[in-house]
Amino acid sequence: MKLTRALITAAGRDDHALPLQRLVDRDGRAKTALEIIVEEAVTAGAHEIAIVVRPGDEDAYRAAAGRSPSRLELIPQPEPKGYGHALKLGRTFIGDEPFLHLVGDHLYVSDLCTPDPAGGETSVSCRRCAQQLVAAAEAHDCAVSAVQSTREHMLPYFGAIGGRRVAGSRGLYEVEAVIEKPTPTQAEQELIVPGLRAGHYLCFFGMHVLTPGVLDLLDSLGPAGDRLLAPALAALAGRERYLAYEVQGRRYNLGVTYGLLIAQLALGLAGKDRAEILAQLVELLARGQGAS
Predict the structure, then answer these.
(1) DSSP alpha helices (H): ranges in the chain?
(2) Which of 67, 71, 272, 276 has its CA 20 to 30 A from that of 23?
(3) What is the pLDDT of residues 68-114, one digit of tens each?
(4) pTM (2 decimals)?
(5) For domain 5-291, which architecture applies?
(6) In whole angstroms, how far apart are CA 116 and each of 125, 142, 246, 271?
């Protein structure tokens, strides 16, 4: 498996403007959230990128995507039928190749990033989250979803997997079950992963390496396949080898309350201006204590 293409979904009714928001990246440069996501994909080897958008958003997204991909295609989703439907619109772009899929309302901060004390144009050396995921998919030649150990109270926000650890591996799991936003009872009964801390489950990270067969599975599910990806992934686990990889990093959902603020802090604290940001935070906290 050699991955060269990525599909980003950004046509959600309530979050389509989030990728256009501006933040300061780890390298200290102001960028749109979309540009940061696109760079994540390009760094992982996906130089051809398609973005599924709401009709009328094409120009804004093209301007916000930056210049890093060698090919950029904007695919409008005429009707808001759902997440699975948005993925299926990328069928012609994807063709018969495996592809990297990222959602447009999440940013990712790798734990494997080190600010360069010397500064310079490339001021942060990184093995990004998408690079870690793609490396796992290419090594095992199969679909792989990124996951993160997540506390039980966050289950209403994510899909989650159940399975077993691949022998001799770090953070790699054979997927046996997938449930979208499970209840705690469902998770306890069907999504147990041996070795995980009590009260924690492996929830989706917002990025996947998928095979084109996933799109056929979405078709076979009818209206359910238009709405959600998780049922197709559950079917995939019964049809071919499908792994989950626990990425060394964190995901940040821009669409939740204070999501943009928390993502900006995470980017800043992982970047070259970490010391300055920490100093400013200490000053803000000191002022807050004085005001009380």
Answers:
(1) 33-43, 58-64, 83-88, 91-94, 129-140, 184-190, 213-220, 223-227, 230-239, 259-269, 274-291
(2) 71
(3) 889 999 999 999 899 999 999 999 999 999 999 999 999 999 998 76
(4) 0.90
(5) Alpha-Beta Complex (3.90)
(6) 7, 35, 26, 9
